[in-house]
Amino acid sequence: IFFASGFLIFRVKSRLSNSKLPPGSTGWPLVGESIKFTMLGPENYIKDRMNKCSPEVFRTSLLGETMAVLCGPVGNKFTFTNENKFLTSWLPLSMKKALLFPSFVDNTKEDIAALKRNFMHEILKPEALRQYIPVMDSMARKHIELEWTPNQEIKVFPSLKKYTFDLACRLFMSIEDPESIQKLFHPFHLVTSGLFSVPINLPGTAFSRAIKGGKMIREELLAVIRKRDRELSANGDLGAKDLLSRMMMAVDHRNDKLMNEMEISNNIIGSLIASYDTTSTAVTMVLNYLAELPHIYDGVLKEQTDIAKSKAPGELLTWEDIVKMKYSWNVAREALRLAPPAQGAFREVVTDFSYAGFTIPKGWKTFWTVHTTHKNPMYFPHPEKFDPSRFEGSGPAPYTFIPFGGGPRMCPGKEYARLEILVFMHNVVTKFKLEKAIPNEKIVYHASPTPVHGLPVRLIPHEN
User: Which of 4-8, 95-99, 220-224, 339-343 has the lowest mean pLDDT?
Assistant: First the structure.
């Protein structure tokens, strides 16, 4: 066994030494370049390595894994169009250990995702989401009336985390009781702070806190799932037609069986993470720019006021109203370009392949990221300027604007996020003018861009 193992190691090393690997560095043992990535921030780190190594592809080590970062629209296209040919989905160990039941940690991402992706796309496509718009609108109105209107100043980021999570609990699981929501909400900060950490489980580390928070969330979700199971058993399929009920009645395409409660939890928790972290960040950054740029705010206000004037008193928003919000959506997309809530995603290399003259070996991981294109002047002239007109007409070149990814693994929640952003924009700008309380508030990057003081804004109610 010793000689066989030595021979295999020699063969692998010999194969790699004869290959032309991408330029770059794998940094320190175990931690790799994760510390540099964190200290510089994703955007600056990627820009630095593209300048020093190659604008096409470079080698690094993040989260304990050797990685090739494929850059630019060519790299994005290659990643999005070679699923299951050269690449397959991959989740970092830190994410799997934090979110999943221990028995699933060693499974592939495909095994974990028991539901077909087309199931998620089916229930999150625009036609299916239309029924959610009035609920989103009524909940946005209620949240603003209770949390914003009584105050002259509000911290936008924590307020939106609460709102987007409350909304997800209502739409995905029909949970409205504040105490039940709080039991799920409280551990999420522990989880999100350690999702992309070096997987070293020592007391006090972000990874250790994420594991603790994940266990708490899974326990609460199991209680919700079991309660719903009893309701469905008593009432047949007359129970709530929310995401949870549909998952519990969905058949796993691989074995024609219903999913078990742990598989359902695995699928639900991803939707909740997106609502708690990604969507709340997206809305926060949109409001950040509206408070910062009066001329952009005025354009959004005009569009939203016209829509509001077309409604009867108390009438809720509809799909037809959302369709009219063209300028507002261009503003939101420009905010997503400048401050994308998701940094990118990973893949695993399933077979050696050649890219840009370099060999990417089997077993390596790849990383695509918004930061190779979103502020690249080659694709977005004057990239730091906030300019919603970039999205008029045919918009940006293919594979350059990718806040939701692309290809068959494009984020299935893209349309849900669009509706949530636009509905909240409508309710804020038709009630208040916004002014930043801290004009030059620093934005730091953890898993997502985060205003260090929570984005406090002054609320100036409209006279009419």
Answer: 4-8
- Asked which of 89-93, 114-118, 153-157, 280-284 is least confident by mean pLDDT, the reply is 114-118
Instruction: Please count the other Cβ atoms lying within 10 Å of the Cβ belonging to residue 264.
Output: 23
Question: pLDDT tens, 324-377?
Answer: 999 999 999 999 999 999 999 999 999 999 999 999 999 999 999 999 999 999
pLDDT tens digit sequence for 81-99: 998 899 998 888 888 888 8
Mean pLDDT of the chain: 88
Residues facing residue 365 across a β-bridge: 67, 348
3-state secondary structure the chain: CHHHHHHHHHHHHHHHHCCCCCCECCCECCCECHHHHHHHCHHHHHHHHHHHCCCCEEEEEECCEEEEEECHHHHHHHHHHCECCCEEECCCHHHHHHHCCHHHCCCCHHHHCCCCHHHHHHHCCHHHHHHHHHHHHHHHHHHHHHHHCCCCEEEHHHHHHHHHHHHHHHHHHCCCCHHHHHHHHCCHHHHHCCCCCCCCCCCCCHHHHHHHHHHHHHHHHHHHHHHHHHHHHHHHHHCCCCHHHHHHHCEECCCCEECCHHHHHHHHHHHHHHHHHHHHHHHHHHHHHHHHCHHHHHHHHHHHHHHHHCCCCCCCCCHHHHHCCHHHHHHHHHHHHHCCCCCEEEEEECCCEEECCEEECCCCEEEEEHHHCCCCCCCCCCCCCCCHHHHCCCCCCCCCCCCCCCHHHCCCCHHHHHHHHHHHHHHHHCCEEEEECCCCCCEEECCCEEECCCCEEEEEECCC
* Distance from C-alpha of 246 to C-alpha of 237, rounded to nearest angstrom: 9
Q: Which of 109-123, 174-188, 269-283 has the lowest mean pLDDT?
A: 109-123
